[in-house]
Amino acid sequence: MRRTAIALMTTCLLAVSACDSGSSPTSSSAPSEADVVAWMDKVCGAVDGTVKAMSDEPGVDMTDPSTLKAGLSDWLGTKVAAVDRSITDLKALEDGPHPRSKELVTTAESGMDQIRTLLTDTRSKLDSSTDATQVVTAFTEMATRASALENSGAQVQRKFDETGLAGAAQKAGNCKGLQTSSSSSAPTS
């Protein structure tokens, strides 16, 4: 169940990054391709911090009720901090060189914010739980809600496609790294 929740959230994050779309390259009225590729590399880099943070599993003994709650809460806290950093980094990229930079980045920020909400809601439920059953229930609810985020990730993917940045993303190193992460983080169940 933990791996499923983590894989689902990571998949959502990768969809938010949307660096592997197949739409047409940027229009000729856009700034230089090198500037757009460099900017896109920063956008994917901002998302990559969260993807890397979400790739680990909680280092908690799931059979020890005395450490379960605190351990999962701390683990979720590190994930929330990573998402916050990504959102801050994305905010700084809103005025990029592409004519639709702000539109694209605010859509990515919105997707990250949805993931942040999921994590903080789960952490709040964990922190207010009074027994191990409530902790497991909160984590299970997170997995269920994470699967619903796939739709928001698809919406972000469409926005990236609409802006015509696929060519730049395919040339940006951080975006290529996310593509590699995407194929290695797929659930294996």
Average pLDDT, to the nearest integer?
A: 78
DSSP strand count? 0
Following the backbone from N to C, one meets helices and strands in this order, namely HHHHHHH
Task: Kindly estimate the percentage of residues that lie in beta strands according to DSSP.
Answer: under 5%
Structural class: mainly alpha
Are there runs of 5+ residues with pLDDT below 50, and where?
1-5, 10-28, 183-189
Radius of gyration based on Cα positions = 17 Å
Helix count, DSSP H or I runs of 4 or more residues? 7
Shape: elongated
Helix content: over 70%
Q: Main beta sheet: strand number and arrangement?
A: none
**What gap, in angstroms, lies between the N and C termini?**
10 Å
Provide a compact summary of the structure.
This protein is 76% helix and 0% strand. With 189 residues, the protein is mainly α.
Question: What is this structure's SSE topology?
Answer:
Layout: H1 2-17, H2 33-54, H3 65-91, H4 101-128, H5 132-163, H6 166-171, H7 173-184
Helix pairs in contact: 1-2, 1-4, 1-5, 1-7, 2-3, 2-7, 3-4, 4-5
How would you characterize this protein structure?
The chain contains seven helices and no strands. Helix 1 runs antiparallel to helix 4. The longest helix has 32 residues. It is elongated. The N terminus and C terminus are likely disordered.
Core attributes:
mainly alpha, 0% strand, disordered N terminus, single chain, elongated, disordered C terminus, 7 helices, 189 residues
